[in-house]
């Protein structure tokens, strides 16, 4: 038996430790097997033995005390429950990725208690990054994360070949799954849409979360999603349609056939009602600005403290509306990150002089809302008196630089 104590166990690590005759590998309770490691062990018929935990503490992989967030109770549904932060990308003065500032930002999110990371999503401006930059973002996040929370990496490339290449690269980095939107730019038939996802599911080294966001690409029909249930690799969906009935119908229609089917809500405005009705959690941009509030909302919802969860949901609405409306997406959210103390850098898109002026006013307005929440924000704000009680303990801006 080979004993491994590394926090992240990759296929490459196993190749260096395992001999030809080894039939078991023992890992510590805190170790995380990457999908490529699981595939290697399965291919070689090697049994994984989990070392017992000393003392009465629960094992790290034990599920949280939540019923709504863990339908089916499988390891995968538990792992992909909670709040996954759809992070922005921070740029330097020349418009390139600022890796140092990104490292501090991602570390801050993890330390703030978010349950997972979601790089290369819409908030991460994946279509504005080069293929190399998209790889770099996930690599940086994996290095900062060190297996502490699951990584759900956006892998929506222009064609199946590139999707599979990117999935393989992310698997080697230790990502837990990939997220895929329907092919963008060219609209294809529903039959072709099924074949697209089916072909990727047959060959992907990572599990797949379907991403429905009809604002930016074609709708992912429920009929097609139901047909795709036959593929074990496809384990759930992120729905950013802003349509609560659509989310409810997804769960109502698909979970009787796959009880562990994961449903994550991408719209903060309906986060609470979707969790109450059985969604596993959310992939939200706002959790990149106020992670403490979003995580508490989730925790309160699954614990049944609906009064507090409702209060948090309503207090979030003014902040969400400010960041979402009135300016090119996701500049409002990048401005929110800046108010929390991180220099997000210049935009990757062209803004008019009027839009730049608007963002300056928006920064002040976001500061006022965060101040009402209980955050200490920089600079004079001239905020109107609201008499709203704080909902977080006094928190100073993050030392993001």
Characteristic key phrases:
eight-stranded parallel beta sheet, 2 domains, 401 residues, 41% helix, TIM Barrel, three-stranded parallel beta sheet
Word description of this protein:
The protein has 401 residues and is α/β, with parallel strands linked by helices. The longest helix has 21 residues. It starts with a strand and ends in a 28-residue tail after the last helix. It folds into 2 domains: 49 residues; 263 residues, TIM Barrel (Alpha-Beta Barrel), CATH 3.20.20. An 8-stranded parallel β-sheet has the order 7-6-13-12-11-10-9-8. A 3-stranded parallel β-sheet has the order 1-3-5, with no helix packed on it. The protein is built from 14 helices and 13 strands. β8, α6 and β9 form a beta-alpha-beta unit.
Strand and helix layout:
Blueprint: E1 2-4, E2 8-9, H1 11-17, E3 24-27, E4 32-33, H2 35-44, E5 47-50, H3 75-79, E6 82-85, H4 99-111, E7 116-117, H5 131-145, E8 152-154, H6 160-173, E9 177-180, H7 190-203, E10 207-212, H8 222-227, E11 234-239, H9 244-254, E12 262-265, H10 271-276, E13 281-284, H11 291-303, H12 306-324, H13 331-339, H14 353-373
Parallel strand pairs: 1-3, 2-4, 3-5, 6-7, 6-13, 8-9, 9-10, 10-11, 11-12, 12-13
Helix pairs in contact: 1-2, 4-5, 5-6, 11-12, 12-14, 13-14
Low-confidence stretches: 55-72
Order of helices and strands: EEHEEHEHEHEHEHEHEHEHEHEHHHH
CATH architecture field of the largest domain? Alpha-Beta Barrel
Portion in strands: 5-15%
Structural class: alpha/beta
Largest sheet: 8 strands, parallel
- Mean pLDDT metric: 89
User: Can you say what the CATH homologous superfamily of the largest domain is?
Assistant: Aldolase class I
Indicate the CATH topology of the largest domain.
Answer: TIM Barrel
Q: How much helicity do the residues have?
A: 40-55%
Give the strand order, joined by hyphens, for the main sheet: 7-6-13-12-11-10-9-8
Computed over alpha carbons, the radius of gyration is 21 Å
Number of E-state strands: 13
Q: How many separate domains?
A: 2
């Amino acid at each position: 038996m080979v004993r491994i104590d590394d926090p992240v166990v990759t296929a490459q690590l196993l190749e260096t430790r395992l001999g030809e005759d080894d039939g078991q590998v023992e890992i510590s309770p805190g170790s995380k097997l990457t999908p490529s490691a699981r595939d290697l062990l399965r291919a070689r018929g090697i049994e994984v033995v989990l070392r017992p935990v000393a003392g009465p503490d629960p094992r790290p992989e034990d599920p949280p005390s939540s019923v709504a967030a863990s339908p089916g109770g499988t390891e995968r549904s538990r792992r992909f429950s909670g709040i996954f932060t759809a992070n922005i990308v921070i740029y330097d003065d020349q418009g390139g990725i600022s890796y140092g500032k990104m490292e501090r930002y991602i570390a801050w999110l993890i330390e703030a208690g978010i349950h997972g990371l979601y790089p290369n999503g819409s908030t991460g401006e994946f279509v504005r990054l080069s293929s190399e930059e998209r790889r770099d973002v996930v690599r940086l996040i994996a290095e900062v994360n060190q297996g502490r929370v699951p990584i759900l990496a956006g892998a929506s490339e222009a064609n199946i070949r590139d999707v599979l290449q990117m999935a393989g690269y992310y698997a080697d980095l230790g990502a837990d799954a990939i997220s895929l939107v329907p092919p963008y730019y060219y609209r294809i038939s529903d039959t072709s849409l099924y074949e697209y996802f089916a072909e990727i599911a047959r060959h992907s080294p990572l599990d797949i979360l379907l991403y429905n966001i009809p604002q930016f690409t074609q709708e992912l029909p429920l009929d097609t999603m139901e047909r795709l249930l036959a593929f074990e690799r496809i384990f759930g969906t992120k729905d950013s349609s802003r349509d609560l009935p659509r989310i409810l119908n997804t769960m109502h229609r698909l979970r009787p056939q796959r009880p562990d089917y994961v449903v994550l809500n991408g719209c903060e405005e309906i986060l609470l009602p979707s969790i109450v009705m059985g969604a596993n959690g959310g992939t939200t941009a706002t959790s990149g600005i106020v992670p403490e509030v979003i995580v508490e909302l989730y925790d309160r919802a699954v614990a049944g403290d609906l009064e507090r969860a409702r209060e948090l949901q309503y207090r979030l609405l003014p902040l969400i509306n400010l960041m979402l409306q009135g300016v090119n997406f996701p500049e409002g959210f990048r401005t929110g990150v800046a108010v929390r103390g991180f220099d997000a850098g210049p935009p990757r898109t062209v803004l008019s002089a009027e839009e730049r002026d608007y963002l300056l006013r928006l920064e002040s307005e976001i500061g006022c809302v965060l101040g009402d929440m209980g955050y200490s924000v920089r600079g004079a704000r001239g905020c109107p008196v609201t008499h709203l009680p704080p909902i977080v303990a006094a928190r100073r801006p993050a030392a993001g630089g």
